[in-house]
Every structure is written in C-alpha cells, then in structure tokens.
Design brief:
The protein is of the alpha/beta class and 442 residues long. The chain is built from 19 helices and 15 strands. Strand 1, helix 1 and strand 2 form a beta-alpha-beta unit. Bound molecules: nicotinamide-adenine-dinucleotide (NAD) and uridine-5'-diphosphate-glucose. Keywords: NAD, Oxidoreductase.
Amino acid sequence: MNIAVAGTGYVGLVAGVCFAEKGHKVTCVDVDVNKVELMKAGISPIYETDLEELMRKNYEAGTIEYTTNYIKAYEYADAIFIGVGTPERTDGSADLSYIATVARQIAETVRQDCLIVVKSTVPIGTNDKVEQFIKDFLVHDVKVEIASNPEFLAQGTAVHDTLHASRIIIGTESEWAKECLLRIYQNFNLPIVSVSRRSAEMIKYASNDFLALKISYMNDIANLCELVDADIEDVAKGMSFDDRIGGMFLKAGIGYGGSCFPKDTKALKYLAQKYGYQLKTVEAAVDVNKEQKTRLFYKACDRMITFKGLKAAILGLTFKPGTDDLREAPSLDNIPLLLEAGAAIYAYDPVGTENFRTRYPEGKNDNGTITYVHTPKEALESANICFIFTEWNQIKSITPKEYSLWMQTPLVYDGRNIYKVSDMNQAGVEYHSIGRRNKNIH
Ligand SMILES: NC(=O)c1ccc[n+]([C@@H]2O[C@H](COP(=O)([O-])OP(=O)(O)OC[C@H]3O[C@@H](n4cnc5c(N)ncnc54)[C@H](O)[C@@H]3O)[C@@H](O)[C@H]2O)c1
Ligand SMILES: O=c1ccn([C@@H]2O[C@H](COP(=O)(O)OP(=O)(O)O[C@H]3O[C@H](CO)[C@@H](O)[C@H](O)[C@H]3O)[C@@H](O)[C@H]2O)c(=O)[nH]1
C-alpha cells in the first residue's frame, strides 16, 4: 500500500522503515529540513540499533522516501500514520497542537479515500476529535476515517520491538478501517488485538502507567528494604518466579525517565481529574518517582559537609542505555543540584554527552563547573564522589577495584545497582545503592 507517515521521530521513522521493510511504499514527512536532509543521506537523526541499515536498504530499493512536502506525500496516500509528538503541558495534560497541525494539513490535501491512523499517544477521545476536525476542514470530496494504532516500542530497541512486537493494537470504528489496518500489518505476522478506538487509546496509557507503577512499587519497597535491612535485588528475584508477577520491570533504581512514562502517567492523571475521578494508584507512582530521582543526592548531602570544589564523577547522562535521549533523565534532576552546591563535575556518557552539552555548556555553570570526558577513568581519576545514573555496559565494566584505585575518595552512589554490595566493600569502596544497606555504614 501507499503509506505516508507524519513525523520522523522514534515512532514515525521506525514505523515508516518497518512498513517499507514489509513491502509497502512509504513516504516519511517531517517539518524539520535538517532531519530530512540527513535521512536522504542515509543518516538516522536518532540513535537506534539497526535503523540506519534498514533505512539505507529501503531507500536504495526505492521503497521509502523522505520529504518536507506533505502535500505530495498525503494527497494520494492509502493510509497516513501520524507519529508526531504529544508532549506534556505545564498542567500535565497532553499538548495536541502537533496532532492538530497534521490533521489540518491532511484535511486540506487528501484527494482520495484515506485511512488516517494515529500512532502518537493521545488522551482517550482524541481520535474522535481528530476525525471531526478533519471532516470540518476537508477540501476534497473523499472518504476519510480515523483509526488508533498505539505504539509500544522502547527506545534503544525500537526496530526489534516493532518487527517483533508482543501485539499490535488496532482501534477502529468500521469494518473498512479494520480491514485496511489488517492488510497493512499482514506481513508482520504478529498477534493483532482489534478493539474500539477509545479502548485502543486507553490500552496505551494503561500499559505505560502499569509499567511505571510496577517500577515505583519496586522503588517504594526498595526504600523500605534499606530500613529493614533486606536486599531489593534478592526480593525482586524471589518475586520474579511467580508467573503472576513476572520477572520484568522489577528493577529498583533512580526512578523512571524517558519521553513516555513521566508524561503518560501525568496525562492519565489529568484526564481522570477532568472526569472527576482520582486515579490514586497512578498518582502514587508519580509521587514516588519524583522523590526517587534525587534520593541519592540527598543521601550524599547527609554524608558530605560540602560539595564545593569537590570533583564529582558522573557516570551516565541518558535516561537509559542504548539511546542518546535525555528526556526526563535522572542526570537532569541531579546535576543542577550538584552544580548549585558548587561541585566540579566530570561527566561521562558513551553517546549522550553532545546533547547534554547543549543544555549545560562545558565550564562554569551556576556555582560549579562541568567538564565532559571520553572515558570513565577520566571522570573517576582523583574524584571525591561518584554518581552512577545509567547502566551502560561501558560503565558496568568498571571493576570495583578500579574505583578504589582511581578515586581520591572511593565513594560511590549507584542509582542502578550495578554492583554487589559485598564486592564493592571488599574493594574498599564506600558504596551506596538502592534498596540495599551499605554494610560498612550503620
Ligand atoms: N519515543 C518512544 O519511545 C515512543 C514510543 C511509543 C509511543 N510514543 C509516542 O509517539 C509520539 C511521538 O513520539 P516520538 O518520541 O517519536 O517524538 P519525536 O519528538 O522524536 O518526533 C516527532 C517528530 O514529529 C515532527 N513533526 C512535528 N510536527 C510535524 C508536522 N506537522 N508534520 C510532520 N512532522 C512533524 C518533529 O519534527 C519530530 O521529528 C508521542 O505521542 C509519544 O508519546 C513514543
Ligand atoms: O525495571 C525497570 C525498567 C525500567 N526502568 C526505567 O524506566 C524508564 C523507561 O524504560 P523503558 O521502558 O525501557 O524505555 P522507554 O523507551 O521509555 O519505553 C517505554 O515507553 C515507551 C513510550 O510510550 C513504550 O512504548 C514502551 O513500551 C515503554 O517500555 C527508564 O528510565 C528505565 O531506566 C526502571 O527503573 N526499572
């Protein structure tokens, strides 16, 4: 089929490339000229495993193209997928302005019957509004219908998650729309769950918020573990054997970040409030996460008399490994606090440094300074304190002994529970992590 995709971020670009890979003719549209030029040159504007290879393969085969010319892309498309952002507004609600812009552009350009598929995460009822909006502004006498097809990929594994998705959710209001989506996904050979549009929109939020809740629950239990001298890693392991609980997303740490969990929990909380309902579980997940993110910093404050002039090694800036994305990363909560306290920060991240530098330029920031380094060793050498924010392999491969060899004071605050407490203590490191008591400190 002839498919257009609006937005070439994590969702739009990966969906477009995978549709091309599965035999469709795809045109990816973005308003960002630089992104489009990069993609035409075979370069992915986002850091994702396997993406560039598939982009090049399909571009050379002529099954995918990139453009800023939405008119050409939309006018004779059989289906248009919308994958633009729905960021958080200051009140927690989802900003639908990008969706509205694309909807208007579609209404004014489509010249043949067309299925419009909303892949972006949108509040329940948005698809209805998009349909009405497009019909209100439709220029040509054609049939348009809206379907919901939320996306479940995770960053860092986006291509794999799309080609091997656990399920494809299609939310439609007619047999025509359903048949069309079934045809689009025919070659993916994946389980398809067909529901109403509103249920599909809810499945996305309910899934993300459940995972966020699971993480916050484990973080809450982890904090209690520290008080009662239990070990959260052992607790999670013991829980994971129960199939009803499952082994995934039980990892306690420095709180969830990323472009989705933080905003989607707040958006559902906001939506519930709008209907006069208090979504207490999700609210609790949000509250726990907020405190979790700076818990280690405040623990360090209890231990230190000052950060002024001290060398603080920061290992990991991105919200998770496998991505250069900094959205809602714990580093963004903690580094400003350390700078305010006067620390001399030496930050290492294998791919996130350039993005971080645009927000915090090298040199003096607030009362402190920040220096970006190329290796963990440069960050750790002569350091007085170390914070681990991301569990990159390059960071996991630092041995406990190296901390005590390289640092002036081997004092480590690990937000990802990378090491065994006993290994760190044996190596002479004062080690603070999440949900596990440092046996050397009472
Ligand atoms: N990032 C993820 O892992 C992920 C996973 C599942 C769902 N989602 C949801 O998918 C949506 C998109 O997320 P993302 O992370 O891919 O966003 P993103 O910010 O990475 O990309 C959005 C893209 O849309 C482009 N754009 C804006 N207006 C446009 C227009 N009028 N026409 C064409 N392009 C336009 C932007 O230039 C940008 O390149 C959000 O609703 C998000 O919640 C994201
Ligand atoms: O046990 C865990 C698992 C994850 N995290 C953290 O949770 C955040 C999100 O991680 P992850 O879910 O792996 O990454 P995302 O790319 O944000 O993907 C989530 O958000 C996407 C956007 O909606 C969804 O499509 C995905 O299904 C969903 O996993 C990160 O900060 C992780 O460090 C934990 O703290 N403990």
